Amino acid sequence: MTAEDIAKILDTAESFIEVSERTIKKLPTLRGRTIINLFLEPSTRTRTSFEIAAKRLSADAINMTGSASATVKGESLRDTAKTLSAMACDLVVVRHAYAGAAQILAECMDSHVVNGGDGKHQHPTQALLDLFTMRTHLGRLAGLKVGIIGDIAHSRVAGSLIPALRLMGASVVVVAPPTLMPSRPDVLGAEVSYSLDEVLPDLDVAYMLRIQSERSDRMPFPSLREYARFYGLNSARLASMKPEAIVMHPGPINRGVEISSAVADSPRAVILDQVTAGVAVRMAVMYLLLGGVDVESAS
Predict the structure, then answer these.
(1) SS3 262
(2) Structure confidence by residue, pLDDT tens digits, 244-296
(3) Options 2, 23, 73, 184, the catalytic residue
(4) If we measure between CA atoms, which residue out of 97, 150, 98, 160 comes closest to residue 125?
(5) What is the 3-state secondary structure (H, E, C) of 64-118?
(6) Which of 73, 94, 224, 238 has minimal Cβ neighbours within 10 Å of its Cβ?
(7) Which has more pLDDT, 216 or 220?
């Protein structure tokens, strides 16, 4: 994806933000198209966001989970893809615990495939909604300094957001204890720091990552209390940031660990705006892939 591609998605999403503010939140742009949400890993907010996006464009949205799919009977991902393709669906959103699952589906299907998060690899629409939120609140992406703080090693959010930010002209610093850094942090293309207090005053965005204990075999630090002490964003640390700097988090939040309740509920936190942007950005992705009718005329 190029910077121009990203800009086009964000610009299209601008057209859809207004739809969420209407009494009747629906456009006819994808009427008659079939979208399958194939979520083979637990998800609430991402699956719901994709489902709402599809329905607001009048597409027929069908949800499939791991327990309700033939994968529990031993069917391979490739066979699942071929089965769905034979049903002539138009677009599949896939969430899977293993990296590369979306690529496998795309190789086996004629329909469009959107990666809804694959293992520790990528989460592209999360990165797009994050870019949209930054651009909305700060007016630009080029020249921003974004700190991504926390569980870098296990984060597919960081895996998509870091290259996207660099592509759009922002600089990135990743901040974490050594045990939550990947073995080769230099390949991320971001500045690396182990001290949150040193980098905070220079940041335009503090992006706090969730501690993903489900992806670790053991606790990668002595205690949650110690993690919060050195890497949690609290009111005192927030005060050290630029007055216009914003706080972001992909959710769900571990309050009191990566972010305090006072910060999460402060006007500087734009976490719920990220959720709102997620619907508009996913509408834009579906609309552009499926060639919906003109947005203005549909409105």
Answers:
(1) helix
(2) 999 999 999 999 999 999 999 999 999 999 999 999 999 999 999 998 655 55
(3) 73
(4) 160
(5) EEHHHCHHHHCCCHHHHHHHHHHCCCCEEEEEECCCCHHHHHHHHCCCEEEEEEE
(6) 73
(7) 220
